[in-house]
Write a structure and sequence with these properties.
The protein has one domain (about 1-115). Helix content is about 70%, strand content about 0%. The protein has helices at about 1-25, 30-40, 40-50, 60-65, 70-75, 85-95, 100-115. Helix 1 packs antiparallel against helix 2 (about 30-40).
């Protein structure tokens, strides 16, 4: 089980770093996010950033119609559910829903409530 968790954490870390590349395609380079992930690891960085939602680039991603490329959306992916608590997933869903067109809000909230 621990080996599986290690691979899952490594996958999440890789996907967190990939956020930088996705953002760079629209001219937004979240250098601090990338550095934070490299220094702390993807899961730890995500948890710390959830505690400080004012420090995210979610608004910038929303302006470019790319909320699906956000850390919050990544946290909500079903394969990463074991890495986060129900409370962390609910917070990610709440932050994401606040910046997502209303047609998706119900689905995002349902995902968070399931946890």
């Amino acid at each position: 089980m621990k080996q599986m968790t290690g691979k899952l954490e490594a996958d999440f870390h890789r996907d967190m770093l990939a956020i930088y590349d996705l953002c760079a395609k629209v001219g937004f380079r979240p250098v601090l996010l990338r550095r934070f992930v490299l220094l702390n690891g993807g899961v730890v960085a995500a948890r710390k950033l959830l505690e400080q939602p004012g420090t995210t680039g979610l608004d910038r991603l929303q302006q470019n119609g790319m909320t699906e490329a956000s850390m919050e959306a990544l946290i909500l992916k079903p394969q990463y559910e074991p890495l986060f608590t129900a409370q962390e997933r609910k917070l990610a869903a709440t932050l994401l829903a606040a910046r997502t067109p209303s047609r998706s809000r119900g689905r995002l909230n349902a995902v968070a409530d399931r946890s």
